[in-house]
Amino acid sequence: ITPTGHSLKPLDLMVLKQLSEICNVIPVIAKSDTLTLEERMTFKARINGEIEKEGIRVYPYQVPDSDLDQEEADLNHAIKVLTPFAIVGAEHTIDVDGIAIRGRRHKWGGIINVENEEHCEFNQLRNFLTRTHLQDLIDTTSTIHYEA
Question: Which of 27, 34, 55, 89 is within CB 3.0–4.6 Å of 84 for a Cys-Cys bond?
Fold first, then answer.
């Protein structure tokens, strides 16, 4: 999702709706460092409202709490609160006080550290995709999108 701070374009909504029928959709705000923290929170709420209004199915899917144990329900709720994930991309490591970090140096001298949870939600997205929900993601892809 482009970090415009406004809303999703009609084309974005149409594509997301169609994609949600054939694959798992996990919304991500790219280049989120272009938004202030306030703008990011407002933009996330607006995006979530549009996604809900349009009936776009976003992973992890709504499951009755009775089907999940408390730990799984809490984890899914924490993920839903973060969605869409605000991500800052970086292709290179930079040296900060003798420590190599994956991040981006801005022209005005500021540094965005991809691993810093105050700057970016990359760690949460990575943990979500590779640690906490990997098997469920594989299972739902298989049962919902391919066998249906």
Answer: 27
Tokens 């609160």 sit on residue: 81
Where do we find the tokens 């709420």? 45
Distance CA 7, CA 136 (A): 30
The upper half-sphere exposure of residue 138, i.e. CA atoms within 13 Å in the direction of its Cβ, equals 5
pTM attached to this predicted model: 0.83
Distance CA 123, CA 119 (A): 11
Note the pLDDT of residue 145: 77
- Which amino acid is residue 55, in one-letter code? G
pLDDT per residue over 14-72, tens digit each? Answer: 999 999 999 999 999 998 888 888 999 999 999 999 999 999 999 988 776 667 788 88
DSSP letters of 54-113?
HT---SSPP--GGGS-HHHHHHHHHHHHHPSEE----SSEEEETTEEEEEEE-TTS-EEE
